What does this fold into?
Amino acid sequence: MLPDVIRLKECDPSFVREVMEAGGQGVSACFACGTCVAGCPTVEAMDHPPRRLMRMINLGMREEVLASDTVWLCASCNTCNTRCPRGVEIPNVMAAVKSIAIREGVQPDERVAPVFYQEMVDSMVRYGRLFEPRMMLMVSLRSGQGVEGLMKNAPLGLELFKKGKLPLRPHRIKGTKQLKTILENIRTMEGGK
Amino acid sequence: MRFAYYPGCSLEASGREYDMSTRAVFEALGVELEEIDDWNCCGATAAYSISDTLAVALPARNLALAEEKGLDVLAPCSECYHRMRKAEYAVRNKPGMKERLEKAFEGTGLKFTGRITTRHPLDVIVNDVGIDAVKARITKDLNGLKVAPYYGCVIAKPPEVVGFESVENPTSMDVLIEAAGARALPMSGFKTRCCGGPVLITREELALGLTSGILKEAMEEGADCIVTPCPLCGVMLDAKQKAAGVEAEIPVLYFTQLLGLAMGIKPKRLGLDKNFVPTDRVLEVVSG
Ligand code: SF4
Ligand code: SF4
It folds into this structure.
């Protein structure tokens, strides 16, 4: 939710730098033209349209930004950044906010997406490749969707299975040790930021 | 011509027929594909939501493996293609990213210098193999089959990262469809509109609404089938057709399947029995 009054005293002026350092390059160049909103396919579901979110980041409204649904509903379609006259890498900005929210354990209203992304990355590092059956199971369990969530995704799983397109066992690559090392190196690097 | 082939996770699962048909078409075109040994997932939309360095390091491991062999990568999945190109772009242009990648690779023996790049099959077929060489291999007449080319979001966006295609009006598939003796429909305003796939898990109704818009446009233009270069779009348009509230079924093919048919490759080798909506209608036109 957007407060009626924005109290600059309660804002965090270092937030915009934090977002840029996490990969959200160019966000400070936004001049609020709204081009990004015009072509966004998921804007109707967002609590803050992309332009407003960019403003909020620049104003340092850290808490509101990290709690926003917007970043989790970005489809990464790259329409906005392709058209932005200021070269703001909007999907990267969205991703940077997501990474900060996950790192700090912020619990946004959107429950499924953060767990989904974390489980995807878990699968990528654990096996080296995506293993969807486990991913979907973990998402249902961890997001509070429970059995209902599993049932929702079951029909597609069954269709895929019938077509011989659903591997039932994960393929574990030989390089998983390399992937674990990479993840640890990155954690060390980012922890020291 | 020879490439380091990167199928990616989707082509091992829901997009198996895209993998089969890509291999078959490239073999027929005389382009060698050597699968990257022990490749890993490209990170898709998840890795950069966890860490921007991880989003570079995951694709870069594959790039490093290909670079060892001195080969450019061929990646059919448009999301993988986009992520690999994005990683290359970051290593070459983002201040400090090269150093961060080196640190991330510490202790793994991996190294990516940026000597090689990633190509999309559409780019290679149209721009390297060339339309004349493709035409020379067409043995079956597609009899004016009406085909709706749907490109999806990220194959052409953002242009500084991918950039073999026009952003708002890509044409590489149109050109191949016409070369194969079929008719490419305009898909006005829908060629690169989002299929909703990335938000299917979080906002099903919104996702299916986007899917349905594309299907309806194709049907209104009178399409016999839709072709796409993206496995996520493939699942949405094909497997989710009923859920998207579209009554009449319309076959959805990977562009390599259609091209393979025109080149006289056996439907079974192109995985045409693996698409969700039966592809008989297309096969009838081709054999009839
Ligand atoms: S298009 Fe770019 S400059 Fe315009 S509001 Fe969006 S982010 Fe800001
Ligand atoms: S990348 Fe995200 S914010 Fe930008 S237009 Fe697409 S869905 Fe909207």
